[in-house]
Amino acid sequence: MTKFFERNSTKLTISEFYDNYKLGKYNFDAPYQRKSNVWSDDKKSFLIDSILKNYPMPAIFMRPIVDDDGKTQYDIVDGKQRLQAIINFIEGSTTLTSYFAEDSFVGEDTREAAEEIAGKTFSEIKAEGSSDYVKQFWTYTLQIEYLYDENTDLISSVFDRLNRNGEPLNRQELRKARYANTYIMTVIQKLTENDYWRDKLARLKIERMEDEEFISELLFLILDGHVLDSSPDTLDSKYEEYKNNVATLDQGQKKFECIIDFIKHLSIDYEKCKRLFWTTHLYTLFSVAWYCVKNKISAAQIAKPINEFYTIYFSKDTHYEGALKEYKDASSSRTRSAVQRKHRLEAVLKYCDVL
After folding, report:
1. Domain-embedded: residue 320
2. What is the pLDDT of residue 66?
3. Please, are residues 227 and 342 in contact by the beta-carbon 8 Å criterion?
4. Do 113 and 145 belong to one domain?
5. Are 213 and 297 in the same domain?
6. Which among 221, 213, 128 has a CA at the least distance from the CA of 175?
7. Running along the chain, 355 residues long, what does each successive block of 10 average in pLDDT?
8. Does the pTM of the predicted model rise above 0.70?
9. Domain final residue, candidates 162, 179, 199
10. Whole-angstrom Cα distance, residue 314 to residue 311?
11. Which of 50, 61, 183, 308 would disulfide-bridge 77, Cβ 3.0–4.6 Å?
């Protein structure tokens, strides 16, 4: 018998949705979901603009989960950013667009009322006495698609398909969706939470999972035993290769933590070398530590020369020559390629006289 994906359509007003939200009926953090607050403030405001003009929006996809006591909770499969924007507006952290009244949709007979609420929060709009707009917001109809399949991997694939169109997910967010229930994602998330990275990954877009992508690049260095490029296809293939290889991943995690301990024993002055927080240099530092741990070279042996190397390299008055020039040349272009990463690694090891 031919099989089709089981789903059903319904409608909810924003008022009904928010009532359910306050009762804790929605799970916004299903394992395949991207992180929260990906949308900019402008994008959130524009959605509210559309709602108050009753423009349509795409359907929200939810997965009903009924427990043994008959209570239902809904995983948000697609539409998380839209629903969070609506909640943000209701609760005061998102405003209506400042150009709400400038749309040609607004007629001259209603422009004055539209101008009065432009750029304001929901509580300010209610205070204005703009009951028509308040009613429009609460009664706006959300199109809901319920997905009933119990196979989480299949639901993850639906999320993947939905997000290949519309608001695009980056490659790491797509990996999170695809590998949400695999062991590799558990390990990477744990390694990302290591206190060592707290300030060093701040330059990355954490909400877009750039931190997890970078940590996975470091992990694959350990698992493969050599420097890799970080092209999307390479990372995709490594996620697939190691996704549920528990023994290898556990061993890799232990080695990863040993490497972090090694780096800590180098006593690098990050205040003087703040550019080390750039992922180009962080990857090199990690790979140097990986090489040393692998070849039983102690932190004490390279602590002085590596601190000297980075202090000189990041100095404005440096004349680059020898290993310093090799490192600089390998940091000027294609910095995430395997070849340039290897050149930078070798330059530091030469300077420290351990290659």
Report:
1. yes
2. 83
3. yes
4. yes
5. yes
6. 213
7. 65 96 91 66 89 90 85 88 94 90 72 88 90 94 82 59 59 84 93 88 75 94 95 92 96 97 93 85 96 96 95 88 93 88 96 93
8. no
9. 162
10. 6
11. 61
Q: Where are the alpha helices (DSSP H) in 37-117?
A: 41-52, 80-90, 111-117
Q: Is 193 exposed, middle or buried (0-12, 13-18, 19+ CB in 10 A)?
A: exposed
Q: Which is it for strands 141-147 and 7-13: parallel, antiparallel or unpaired?
A: antiparallel
Rounded Cα distance between 298 and 323, Å, is 21
DSSP 233: H
Token pair of 275 as six digits: 């550019």
- Among 121, 138, 162, the domain boundary falls at 162
Q: Is 147 helix (H, G, I), strand (E, B) or coil?
A: strand
* Alpha carbon distances (Å) from 83 to 54, 73, 126, 137, 158: 16, 16, 20, 13, 18
Rounded distance between C-alpha atoms, residue 248 and residue 312, angstroms:
38
H-assigned helices in 169-321: 171-178, 183-192, 210-224, 232-242, 246-264, 279-294, 299-313
Q: Which domain holds residue 23?
A: 7-162
Contact between 118 and 129 under an 8 Å Cβ cutoff? The reply is no
Q: Which amino acid is at 5?
A: F
179 in the same domain as 304: yes
Q: How many residues are there in the chain?
A: 355
Exposed, middle or buried: residue 278 (CB in 10 Å: 0-12, 13-18, 19+)?
Answer: middle
Residues whose CB is less than 8 angstroms from the CB of residue 299 and which lie 6 or more positions away in sequence, other chains included: 262, 265, 266, 292
What is the SS3 string spanning 282-329?
Answer: HHHHHHHHHHHHHCCCCHHHHHHHHHHHHHHHCCCCCCCCCHHHHHHH
